[in-house]
Design a protein that fits this description.
Largest sheet: 8 strands, mixed
Strand order of the largest sheet: 1-2-3-10-7-6-4-5
Shape: globular
Order of helices and strands: EEEHEHHEHEHEHEEEHHHHHHHHHEEH
Strand content: 15-25%
CATH class of the largest domain: Alpha Beta
CATH topology of the largest domain: Rossmann fold
Bound molecules: nicotinamide-adenine-dinucleotide, zinc ion
Number of domains: 2
Distance between the termini: 43 Å
CATH architecture of the largest domain: 3-Layer(aba) Sandwich
Number of strands: 12
Helix content: 40-55%
Length: about 375
């Protein structure tokens, strides 16, 4: 990957049409449309966005006065992340007489990106998708890496495809209209990147926490660029999640269980914050952590307004039950991503996820109430 100012180029090995640029700036959204038309002159664009993005004025900023065929997901958010929305999108594209020369432009958070990316993967056996992420989750995580998909009535992300974007345009100024709780919770994916891959980046977070909470544009650009570099590094080494990419699951095993046990009352990032503390407790119990990493991680999460204890109404038994059905569980019990040190995930015998007994997990969970 080459880094040139605020532009990164990602190359995914072994994946067809596998190179794409990520452009990062602030106040850049109004210039993106012109760039798309210039870069893909033979393609017909089709925009997928959601009702909140339209309300916040971002669709207008993107397309200006131009009349562009657009599908607006309504209601916005996870409730619409199902296969019927994808069907509605591709059928609308057919009715607009769009063909294999179309290009989907996804403007929104992770739900829009996941839905639009999946629609692009299946429309006429696959058309390119451009991702324009507008949340802290999407700018740090979902827009880079090529995972797309929707939920079934049984489970999250049940149907999907790996479909790498043709380009990613990040305008951090779009974050100014994002709800504050969503904004802060979405930053936990960035803290996770720092914890597993980059100690210096973790220090940057600690030093700049006030600027981050105040949405300082220069700091947010730097965060976006560092996230993309880290995520792209991991994805380039393991594009289809066979091995190393599993480190991105740090804090997520217990995090997912807590999120689900809360009936999704807790946001994903809030649940992962609890999961990261749990991972830190496991590291201590396993004798892996003779440093102050857990204290530093906890302090940063508290400053970001994250919960660091499991809500009393979520029982340990419920969490254990959910861990047994974790989709990555081997023999009904999952493995856990742990840290070797702050900024480095633990790799042993080529494995990035580790066996921890149920007994030890239970004891660590007890400490989190
Ligand atoms: N593909 C991946 O690798 C990957 C990674 C992480 C998460 N995800 C998926 O992403 C989804 C969550 O994404 P999310 O957290 O971005 O949530 P989201 O897309 O649902 O957005 C949250 C809310 O904020 C609104 N919104 C978005 N941007 C806004 C802005 N700039 N101003 C005002 N409102 C705005 C949305 O309309 C929505 O109501 C989940 O479905 C998750 O599974 C995918
Ligand atoms: Zn996550």
């Amino acid at each position: 990957m080459a880094q040139d100012g605020q532009r990164l180029d990602v190359v995914i090995p072994g994946v067809e049409a596998s190179s794409y640029p990520i452009t990062i700036g602030h106040g850049t959204l109004s210039g993106v449309w012109g760039e798309i038309l210039q870069t893909w002159p033979k393609h017909n664009p089709f925009v997928v966005t959601d009702s909140e993005l339209v309300k916040a004025g971002h669709l207008q900023t993107l397309v200006g006065a131009e009349k562009v065929p657009t599908f607006t997901i309504d209601p916005a958010g996870e409730v619409s992340k199902h296969i019927q929305t994808v069907v509605a999108i591709v059928e609308r594209m057919e009715k607009e007489c769009l063909g294999r020369d179309s290009i989907i432009v996804a403007l929104g958070g992770g739900t829009v990106g996941d839905i639009a990316g999946f629609a692009a993967a299946i429309f006429k056996r696959g058309v390119p998708v451009i991702q324009i992420p507008t949340t802290t989750v999407a700018q740090a995580d979902s827009s880079v890496g090529g995972k797309t998909g929707v939920d079934s009535s049984v489970s999250k992300n049940a149907f999907g495809a790996f479909w790498q974007p043709a380009a990613v345009y990040i305008d951090v100024a779009t974050l100014t209209t994002l709800d504050d709780r969503q904004y802060r919770a979405g930053l936990i994916e960035s803290v996770k990147h720092a914890a597993i891959m980059d100690a210096e980046y973790f220090g940057f977070f600690e030093t700049n926490i006030d600027a981050i909470l105040n949405k300082d544009m220069a700091v947010l650009e730097q965060i976006a660029a560092t996230n993309c570099r880290i995520k792209a590094d991991v994805v380039q080494q393991d594009p289809t999640e066979k091995n190393m990419r599993r480190i991105l699951n740090y804090g997520h095993t217990i995090g997912h269980a807590v999120e689900s046990a809360s009936g999704f009352e807790l946001l994903h990032g809030e649940s992962v914050a609890i999961g990261m503390i749990a991972a830190g407790k496991l590291e201590k119990a396993l004798g892996l952590a003779d440093d102050d990493r857990l204290e530093r991680i906890t302090n940063l999460l508290v400053k970001l307004g994250m919960p660091i204890r499991i809500p009393a109404d979520i029982t340990k038994e419920k969490i254990i039950d959910l861990l047994r059905t974790d989709k990555k569980a081997v023999g009904k019990w999952p493995r856990f991503v742990l840290l070797e040190s702050l900024g480095a995930a633990l790799c042993r015998d080529g494995q990035w996820a580790h066996e921890v007994s149920q007994d030890m997990v239970e004891r660590c969970l007890d400490e989190l109430y």
